[in-house]
Amino acid sequence: MQRLSQPLERIRPRYDVVIVGSGYGGGVAASRLARAGLKVCVLERGREFLTGEFPSRFPEFSRQMRVSGQRLRTGSEAALFDVRLGPDMHVLVGCGLGGGSLINAGVTLKPDPRVFADPVWPQPVRGDGLLEEGFARAARWLAPRPTPGGETLLASRALARAAPYFGRQPEPPPMAVAFAETINPAGVRQSACTLCGDCCGGCNVGAKTTVAVTYLPDARRHGAEIFTLAKVLRVERNASGGWRVVLVASDAGDAPEGERAIEAGTLILAAGTLGSTEILIRSRERGLAVSGRLGHGFSANGDIIAFGYGAKTRVNAIGVGHPAKVETDPVGPSVAGQYQITDPDRLENGMCIQHGAMPSALAPALPVMFIPGGRLLGALQSLVTGVYKGPFQGLQTFFAVSHDSASGQLRLEDGRLQVHWPNAKDQQVYARLDRALEAAVKAAGGSYVKNPLASTVMGKTPSTAHPLGGCGLGADARAGVVNHKSQVFDAGAGGDGTAVHAGLYVLDGSIIPRSLGVNPLLTITALAERAVMLLARDLDVAFDDGARAEWTAAGGDAA
């Protein structure tokens, strides 16, 4: 597939629609509004990665890692893996054309219906039926499927040893992965998954159904212009009643002399929970009247990433990459199997326990990670023999999701966005997940390692790869930052708090007002599909979401 993006120097001064961010929300908006015939511009802070360009070796991986905190900032602003260290919560987000879809696990689950019965959601979201249509459209475009034969993978067999504790057998979850060669609804040809285990490091096979191979090429085909390495600092009203978007080249930092601006009739912030919240906070500092709820309601989605060390049988849950670095049994996609547990009496007790795979590019660092945890002998042995032999053959990786209180807050301090959530580590969800994960590891004969980096800069602070909230949906400006259509409330308009900034929207995980209890990608996509249907009505334009035949870019090869 040809590149979708073009140099920032080619950007025009004005568009009908400017979309900031290119993850699930931004991708949906770009595709649908370009289909409606509008002049669409997409701005992405990171780089574009074609299939085969994701880091496959540790030196490449380390160059694509940005780590920042209160007293630390290393790596490129446009690095693929963006790690934010905070005193109360660490956050990992993806940065690149396609957003978090490039490095997430691809698990595509719908939340328990009780999640949407919570009155924290505006009533129309709960009751107008459009969200169900959004889920249907998202499922058609992402085409999730369970891994064929997933229960036979070695990691799944290790997870199945805990079936007596959970009272059921694990199942392979639906994955946004092509397990057979296909042409997807955007007309893009996807290769069949090789079960290499590298989903979370970036798919070099072309099998993972990311935004970069679905919604974004569809948007480009319909005329959208896509620009990478463009960091948006703030937004403001222009003289004509539209929007002015102030940006810099990503590696230029916040230098005022590097600023440029473009105009938009409609502006959609889809830069992710951290990105969209930060842009609105910066804009508020320049006078944009937004809800006092901005930054509140942050949720880690009850996340834990943890490990089991020393399983008695081979687990084979470290990716081998593509082309494969070693000959071994199939690793599987990023998640081989899961236990999805529900409590009929208490929604909060529900959880997903997922057995994951570590990407091959990270493999050389795994022994070093485990040395601080007291597993010195095995870790040193693996430094010599490699992680595909010896003790690390039994390494188990777990991605667990549940429910938290969504009571964190995002604040901008000294130019950096920070998560403030005192005593977040004491949330009851972590104790529940610890018990379940420890049982799963014990059943396989291993030892539970909640955080092998606990004695390093990571400390014992909780971490999440599923940040939600900060620009939450609400019935009015007292309850949220955006309304059920994802329009940003105008806190300076007076009245009953329902007035909005015309033409200003937020469409990403930041609008989700509570934890979901499952991986959020399907819900973010469905909410975006719903909001764009409503936006099209308001703009008096129309589009269809039907699949397209395979397409050929002008002068290029078939996608």
Structural account:
The protein has 559 residues and is an alpha/beta fold. It folds into two domains: 10-51 and 59-98 and 109-143 and 210-302 and 409-417 and 466-543, FAD/NAD(P)-binding domain (3-Layer(bba) Sandwich), CATH 3.50.50.60; 147-201 and 304-402 and 428-461. The chain is built from 13 helices and 26 strands. The strands form six sheets. Strands 1, 2, 3, 12, 13, 14, 15, 25 and 26 form a nine-stranded mixed beta sheet that branches. β13 (230-237) and β14 form a beta hairpin. α1 (24-35) runs parallel beside α13. The longest helix has 19 residues, at 521-539. It is globular. The N and C termini lie close together (4 Å).
Quick overview:
With 559 residues, the chain is α/β, with parallel strands linked by helices.
Average pLDDT value? Answer: 92
The total of helices stands at 13
End-to-end CA span: 4 Å
Q: Provide the structure class.
A: alpha/beta
Any idea of the CATH topology of the largest domain? FAD/NAD(P)-binding domain
CATH superfamily of the largest domain: FAD/NAD(P)-binding domain
Rounded to an integer in angstroms, the radius of gyration calculated over CA atoms is 22 Å
CATH architecture of the largest domain: 3-Layer(bba) Sandwich
State the low-pLDDT regions, or none. Answer: 551-559
Helix content: 10-25%
Total tally of structural domains = 2
Morphology call: globular
The first-level CATH class name of the largest domain: Alpha Beta
Largest sheet: 9 strands, mixed
